[in-house]
Amino acid sequence: MRKPLTGNLSNFVKLRKLRKNDLKMLRFWRNANRKFFFNKDVVSPKMQINWYYDRYLKNPNDTIYIVLYKNVPVGTLAMIKHDNGELEIGRVMLGEKKYARKGIMGKALELLLKLYEENNTDMKRFFLEVIRTNKSAIEFYEKHGFKQIEEKADEIVMTKDI
């Protein structure tokens, strides 16, 4: 088991919004981790460019963040605002596996939740969907205050009140 990093991770973990020049890295990470996504198809460069311009940039309620550790991109998190007062967490992905189980993604999730809690007082709760067999992800979310509220055929829905 890998040991968590020592020291105050708050000084080293940052979030920044996705940029166009992140797409190649994002596609590589996504394809390498596709078994953890509901859509397991390999994403081609053309598919990604179409998604980026035709869907992502046109949806102001969907924001992907690159997780940085000491200014090095290591993963992603996303937040999608819904009209019903819920904030959906998605695209949680550790792209650089050498940083696994070091506390970096946990700190990044805490930063993301705090950012949206402080700036979205009209929102009611966070939710996410996770593949039922992804036990490590379920444990990760439970560690950060999420509760399982629904089980579907292939997924579990988890929430955290704001």
TrEMBL record:
Superkingdom of the source species: Bacteria
Pfam name, any one: Acetyltransf_1
Domain N-acetyltransferase positions: 13-162
InterPro entries cross-referenced by the UniProt entry: Acyl_CoA_acyltransferase (IPR016181), GNAT_dom (IPR000182)
Molecular function terms from GO: acyltransferase activity, transferring groups other than amino-acyl groups
Name of the protein in question: N-acetyltransferase domain-containing protein
